[in-house]
Design brief:
The protein has 453 residues and is mostly helical. Helices cover 77% and strands 5% of the residues. A hairpin with a 2-residue loop joins strand 1 and strand 2 (204-209).
């Protein structure tokens, strides 16, 4: 329970850290006169730093463990908020944003790796819940920043105070995460057939994943046996399953589809309400809030739903719900009814979309923790997924400019449908790979039985 509390607090503080950066951007823009072009460049620099760091983070986690990397990069990311606060011009601001992006990239992967390690130890899913905590942290941090700025606080002082407080908090929580990693290294979790093999590399605890299925649930697919092979043998004669690069790439595409669907809502839901449906700006903000609230609520319920329904049904329902939501959003623009009814249809659609995409990435990240090389696999899939999440909203904007926003929103709708159709068998492949390494003889017998029946 201590490990779960620590990683949950890490996610919450990371949400606050992101909010201190994002919610102060308008004030930083006003202070330095960046303009739309400067802000766009700044965000691209931040994203480039994150994407460059994510593949490296996987290797570092394999060497030091998720808790080991978290202990370093969590307080460093919080401290890096001081860079934008102290920047006297656009040049220093870009440099500080690049550094912040690198640290954010390391932090995202370290959090995921540590979360799946804690999940294996508990023997039940927690990934959706910790992501919900991140959301709450972001909302709370944004509210605090907004209140302080409205009260007349200087944005530089506000960011420096936030950086100092968050650095201290992250250092304490990161140390606790490392202590949890060391305490659980070398132990075997037997409640669900999972095995965690602890080794030591350079004096630091390293966690190698055996085949831990945890609370993943779900049916084992019939045709997935050749997707990943068992490479090497773990403790007690169990294998270390590794997924092939093509499977990791497809998992990245599924994650990217979820991030594009989420980014389309966060960036374009309000614009759709005002420009397509004729709503006022305040109502446009409310549409975004509806999406965010639905996503947060489902994330806190997502682990229980996944445990009850299994991975295949959960992810299929998630994709179908998001697809239906985008269908309602598109329908709202052409309904021959009054403005209020059209707006209500769109709000229902955005709520369904938020509920649908809420659990997709947590389930993908969680299942990646059941196979060998989890840290590198997570970093690779995270890079593809986040990259898609960055490119997607920009692509939607381009299509909206050259054609129309409703046509552009067909893109996330199609990707949500892709999740509903392609993700269940793909995630079955991951479960099958882990099962093959966990009990190879039983797996071979089961496959042979299915082929002869």
């Amino acid at each position: 329970m201590a490990g779960r509390g620590t990683i949950t607090l890490c996610y919450g503080l990371t949400g606050v850290t992101n909010a201190v950066w994002a919610a102060t951007l308008p004030a930083t823009d006003a202070r330095l006169g960046l303009g739309p072009g400067g802000l766009g460049t700044l965000l691209m620099v931040l994203a480039a730093g994150s994407l460059a760091a994510m593949p490296v983070a996987g290797r570092l986690c394999d060497r030091w463990s998720g808790g080991g990397l978290l202990r370093v990069c969590a307080p460093a990311a919080a401290l890096a908020l001081a860079g934008p606060a102290l920047a006297a011009g656009s040049g220093p601001l870009m440099v500080s944003a690049a550094l912040l992006g690198v640290l954010f990239g390391l932090l995202n992967v370290a959090l995921s790796v540590q979360a799946v390690a804690v999940e294996r130890g508990l023997g039940r899913p927690i990934m959706a819940t910790v992501h919900g905590t991140w959301t709450l942290g972001a909302v709370a941090g944004g509210a605090l920043v907004t209140a302080a700025l409205r009260a007349g606080a200087d944005v530089r002082v506000l960011m420096l105070v936030g950086a100092t407080a968050l650095t201290a908090a992250m250092a304490a929580v990161g140390g606790a995460a490392m202590a949890t990693t060391r305490a659980t290294a070398g132990t075997t979790t037997g409640t669900t057939g999972g095995t965690t093999v602890g080794t030591t590399v350079g004096g630091a605890a390293r966690t190698t994943v055996g085949a831990a299925r945890g609370g993943a649930g779900g049916a084992v697919g019939d045709g997935a046996g050749g997707v990943g092979g068992a490479e090497g043998r773990g403790a007690e004669g169990r294998g270390v399953a590794r997924l092939r690069p093509g499977v990791l790439a497809m998992l990245g595409v599924i994650g990217a589809a979820a991030f594009v669907a989420e980014g389309a809502a966060t960036d374009w839901a309000g614009v759709h309400a005002t420009r397509v449906l004729g709503a006022d700006p305040a109502t446009g903000s409310l549409v975004y809030t509806v999406f965010f609230v639905a996503m947060t609520l489902v994330r806190f319920a997502g682990d229980a739903v996944r445990t009850r329904l299994g991975v295949r049904l959960t992810i299929r329902l998630a994709g179908a719900t998001a697809t239906a939501g985008y269908g309602l959003v598109l329908l709202a623009g052409v309904l021959p009814v009054g403005a209020a009814a059209r707006l209500g249809c769109a709000m229902a659609g955005w709520a369904l979309s938020g509920a649908g995409v809420a659990v997709v990435w947590p389930v993908v990240a969680s299942l990646l923790g059941t196979v060998g090389g989890a840290a590198r696999g997570l970093s690779a899939v995270t890079t593809v997924s986040y990259g898609g999440g960055l490119v997607g909203p920009a692509l939607i904007g381009y299509v909206a400019t050259t054609a129309s926003l409703p046509l552009a929103l067909v893109i996330p709708a199609a990707l949500a449908l892709l999740v509903a159709v392609a993700a269940p068998p793909l995630l079955d492949a991951v479960v099958t790979t882990a099962a093959a390494a966990d009990h190879p003889a039983a797996h071979v017998r089961a496959v042979a039985s299915r082929r002869t029946s």
